[in-house]
């Protein structure tokens, strides 16, 4: 099939009339390479089809929720069976208790669970609980980390008042001295330290947590009576079957979850230890759809697969196959890649590409060869991918490297300059 985008272009034109800028959020084509589709028709397993019928091996996985494959038969059947009986009702169904039992059994630091819809819901509740527990206000966060799209944490300043960002002190991820300085600056008002499971900032090489840094974060919270919060919304169940910081043997007081918890059905979670159970019970947080039963049934089925299958080992192996193959292909064409982060959550960028011109051209060439990559956001390996999918991707990548090589000198990407102006810290 010859790649075309005529239907997508027509939808974009219609959207401009009824949606601000035609699209908002992370899927805005203001941020993506030219020709990237904004609208999609269907998805199955590891694949995504746009409105023009172009099929892609999708390494964005819905920006993370697709863990076991789009339209997974068992997970979706659990969702549909529950929806037929009742989904959003006046109150929750049994599935809420079953899911809380399953989540606390799966995650070693957790004694209780609360459920919501988006990662931002969960991180905001975590902040409220920390402040309620400590009766203090200041939170310490890593510079450049993403914790959601609410005014207190959105990376874009537009529409945000200075008061929305009050009582925040920042540190450099993995830097113990910087963390200690931030805690000192918070003084007697420290309520919590927020930490990402890995450093997964945009445009920045990914980093696994240094065990010394993770342990020191735990110690500082204990010393000051503050709560340690690990924001596992993006990486949860992709690094470990437990909280991601179980890999460095550090238990948080609170952890936030979303993305892959129900394989794409809308639910997120906040898990906590008994130390802050009363504080969790005495905040007010709710939403019209937070008690919906069908996503909870889907999450229960997802947790069974997490516990009973080798999905984690397979996604790691597939990610390593992709990483080594891309390095080999890049070298054949005289390029070097910076591939950082865990293999199953890769960030892939060109070395010596300060304006992202090579990356944008390469990604656009991949798109037209049936591979959906992202030029500056970390990506995801899902359990529905196969070795054949990885090999097809490597063949497409080889062709795309040739496109970049043949293009010669490239102009800077104007979208990158715009994005850097929009985002805090860049």
List keywords for this structure.
4-stranded mixed β-sheet, alpha/beta, Aspartate Aminotransferase, domain 1, 13 strands, Aspartate Aminotransferase, domain 2, single chain, 38% helix, 2 domains, 426 residues, 7-stranded mixed β-sheet
What do you see in this structure?
There is one protein chain. The chain has 426 residues and is α/β, with parallel strands linked by helices. The protein folds into 2 domains: 6-63 and 310-424, Aspartate Aminotransferase, domain 1 (Alpha-Beta Complex); 73-308, 3-Layer(aba) Sandwich (Aspartate Aminotransferase, domain 2). The chain is built from 12 helices and 13 strands. The strands form 3 sheets. The protein has a 7-stranded mixed sheet, with helices on both faces. α6 links the parallel β7 (190-195) and β8. α9 (311-332) packs parallel to α11. The chain starts with 5 loop residues before the first helix and ends with a helix. The model has no long low-confidence stretch (mean pLDDT 95). Belongs to the class-III pyridoxal-phosphate-dependent aminotransferase family. Pfam families: Aminotran_3. It is an enzyme of class 5 (isomerase). Keywords: Isomerase, Pyridoxal phosphate.
Proportion in helices:
25-40%
Query: If helices are DSSP runs of H or I spanning 4 or more residues, what is the number of helices?
Result: 12
The end-to-end span amounts to 40 Å
The CATH superfamily of the largest domain bears the name Type I PLP-dependent aspartate aminotransferase-like (Major domain)
Number of strands: 13
Strand content: 5-15%
CATH fold-type name of the largest domain: Aspartate Aminotransferase, domain 2
Overall pLDDT metric: 95
| Sheet of most strands | 7 strands, mixed
Order of helices and strands: HEEEHHEHEEHEHEEEHHHEEHEHH
Q: What is the approximate shape?
A: globular
- Supply the CATH architecture of the largest domain: 3-Layer(aba) Sandwich
Classified by CATH, the class of the largest domain is: Alpha Beta
Global Rg:
22 Å
Q: List the domain count as a whole number.
A: 2
Widest sheet: strand ordering: 4-10-9-8-7-5-6
Query: Stretches where pLDDT falls below 50 for ≥5 residues?
Result: none
Structural class: alpha/beta
Protein name: Glutamate-1-semialdehyde 2,1-aminomutase
Cofactor: pyridoxal 5'-phosphate
EC number: 5.4.3.8
InterPro entries: Aminotrans_3 (IPR005814), Aminotrans_3_PPA_site (IPR049704), PyrdxlP-dep_Trfase (IPR015424), PyrdxlP-dep_Trfase_major (IPR015421), PyrdxlP-dep_Trfase_small (IPR015422)
């Amino acid at each position: 099939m010859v790649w075309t985008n005529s239907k997508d272009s027509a939808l974009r034109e219609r959207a401009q009339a009824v949606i601000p800028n035609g699209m908002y959020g992370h899927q805005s084509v203001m941020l993506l390479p030219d020709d990237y589709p904004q609208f999609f028709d269907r998805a199955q397993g590891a694949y995504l089809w746009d409105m023009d019928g172009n099929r892609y091996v999708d390494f964005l996985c819905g920006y993370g929720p697709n863990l076991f494959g789009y339209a997974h038969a068992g997970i979706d059947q659990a969702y549909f069976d529950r929806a037929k009986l009742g989904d959003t009702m006046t109150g929750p169904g049994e599935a809420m208790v079953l899911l809380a039992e399953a989540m606390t059994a799966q995650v070693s630091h957790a004694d209780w669970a609360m459920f919501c819809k988006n990662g931002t819901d969960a991180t905001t509740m975590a902040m409220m609980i920390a402040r309620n527990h400590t009766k203090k206000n200041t939170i310490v966060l890593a510079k450049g980390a993403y914790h959601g799209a609410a005014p207190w944490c959105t990376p874009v300043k537009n529409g945000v008042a200075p008061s929305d960002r009050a009582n925040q002190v920042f540190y450099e991820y993995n830097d113990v001295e910087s963390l200690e300085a931030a805690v000192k600056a918070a003084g007697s008002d420290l309520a919590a330290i927020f930490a990402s499971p890995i450093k997964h900032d945009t445009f920045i090489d990914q980093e696994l947590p240094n065990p010394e840094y993770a342990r020191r974060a735990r110690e500082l919270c204990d010393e000051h009576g503050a709560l340690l919060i690990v924001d596992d919304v993006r990486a949860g169940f992709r690094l470990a079957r437990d909280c991601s910081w179980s890999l460095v043997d550090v238990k948080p007081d609170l952890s936030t979850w979303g993305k892959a918890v129900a394989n794409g059905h809308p639910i997120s979670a906040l898990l906590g230890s008994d130390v802050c159970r009363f504080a969790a019970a005495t905040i007010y947080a709710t939403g019209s759809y937070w008690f919906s039963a069908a996503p909870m049934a889907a999450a229960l089925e997802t947790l069974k697969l997490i516990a009973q299958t080798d999905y984690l080992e397979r996604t790691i192996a597939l990610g390593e196959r992709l990483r080594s193959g891309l390095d080999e292909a890049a070298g054949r064409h005289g390029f070097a890649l910076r591939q950082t982060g865990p293999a199953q959550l890769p960030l892939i960028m060109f070395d010596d590409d300060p304006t992202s011109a090579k990356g944008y051209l390469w990604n656009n060439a991949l798109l037209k060869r049936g591979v959906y990559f992202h030029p500056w956001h970390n990506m995801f390996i899902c359990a529905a991918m196969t070795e054949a999918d990885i090999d097809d991707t490597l063949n497409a990548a080889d062709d795309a490297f040739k496109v970049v090589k043949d293009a010669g000198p490239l102009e800077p990407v104007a979208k990158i300059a715009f994005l850097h102006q929009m985002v805090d810290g860049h």
